[in-house]
């Protein structure tokens, strides 16, 4: 071959080989960047800050559906636990949005927590966040779903329950007018009038409290609650009544246990159980308040030696205005709302309340709540 042709040929061959090498290097660098993005555990800049200030529930998930960032609201709604989504339907929605490559919005009804049957009505939207992550945004619509039912029930119940004390007050007022010249009768009617007035005030206050618990999420500002303080306060509030009825209040169980929620609401729930136990206990007797815990659940049990509850009425004791013994409730001034308030307080905390009873032997009401094992419930982003 002519040596004059070898030089251009060699140059051309060198250019081809060099160009191929450059393309290979560029491709390798690009694949390296893509692999680094896939292997990275950090969320895109600024996303975590946005998630943490959301008033609604927001969750960022990696390709394995591990939670790398969640807003405090997502935790308090019971959607996230131990860096995973609690509900399989949420995981399914995220997977469908990931496969479709487009945002998906659905209305879902989910349980509030691992315990109990309280439901959440949610508007959920899942969408891609960059090439790696998925974003889950959740709006709580529970209040709007409950509002109509609460209003209907409220009007029906209140119109019925207020008839008795209002009617009694009217009759007593009329009787006072006729007995104006009889001091003994005036005093007797005045005492009855005071009792009916107090009953009306108590009924009104409990209706307001129950409506507040049902109409919205009362846990707007939850915190870690020490159950030792809750039980002690509930016992102290019932001490005078118990002493007057010769009922001993005995507390016991594990100490130092904590739950996530509202201390005042939990005190009200335990107080109502202790108050009922004292009211329906013979004299003398005792009421026990015990606290126990497993790995994930705390139980507060209130046990009495009272009249008990018939088996066919156990499923109704948490209904509004339901009373096991109507005559006894009138004597004690009961409104029939105490146990309903207990139920809704516990449900708002992601738990449930159970009852065991045997007529003539007594009853045990048990509040079950998710246990707090960490000092704070806010999840932060996972970074390597």
From TrEMBL:
<dbReference type="GO" id="GO:0000155">
    <property type="term" value="F:phosphorelay sensor kinase activity"/>
</dbReference>
<dbReference type="InterPro" id="IPR036097">
    <property type="entry name" value="HisK_dim/P_sf"/>
</dbReference>
<keyword id="KW-0175">Coiled coil</keyword>
<keyword id="KW-0597">Phosphoprotein</keyword>
<dbReference type="InterPro" id="IPR004358">
    <property type="entry name" value="Sig_transdc_His_kin-like_C"/>
</dbReference>
<dbReference type="GO" id="GO:0005886">
    <property type="term" value="C:plasma membrane"/>
</dbReference>
<keyword id="KW-0902">Two-component regulatory system</keyword>
<keyword id="KW-0418">Kinase</keyword>
<dbReference type="Pfam" id="PF00512">
    <property type="entry name" value="HisKA"/>
</dbReference>
<dbReference type="GO" id="GO:0016036">
    <property type="term" value="P:cellular response to phosphate starvation"/>
</dbReference>
<dbReference type="InterPro" id="IPR005467">
    <property type="entry name" value="His_kinase_dom"/>
</dbReference>
<dbReference type="InterPro" id="IPR036890">
    <property type="entry name" value="HATPase_C_sf"/>
</dbReference>
<feature type="coiled-coil region">
    <location>
        <begin position="186"/>
        <end position="213"/>
    </location>
</feature>
<dbReference type="InterPro" id="IPR003661">
    <property type="entry name" value="HisK_dim/P_dom"/>
</dbReference>
<protein>
    <recommendedName>
        <fullName>Sensor-like histidine kinase SenX3</fullName>
        <ecNumber>2.7.13.3</ecNumber>
    </recommendedName>
</protein>
<feature type="domain" description="Histidine kinase">
    <location>
        <begin position="157"/>
        <end position="373"/>
    </location>
</feature>
<keyword id="KW-0808">Transferase</keyword>
<dbReference type="GO" id="GO:0004721">
    <property type="term" value="F:phosphoprotein phosphatase activity"/>
</dbReference>
<dbReference type="InterPro" id="IPR003594">
    <property type="entry name" value="HATPase_dom"/>
</dbReference>
<dbReference type="Pfam" id="PF02518">
    <property type="entry name" value="HATPase_c"/>
</dbReference>
<dbReference type="InterPro" id="IPR050351">
    <property type="entry name" value="BphY/WalK/GraS-like"/>
</dbReference>
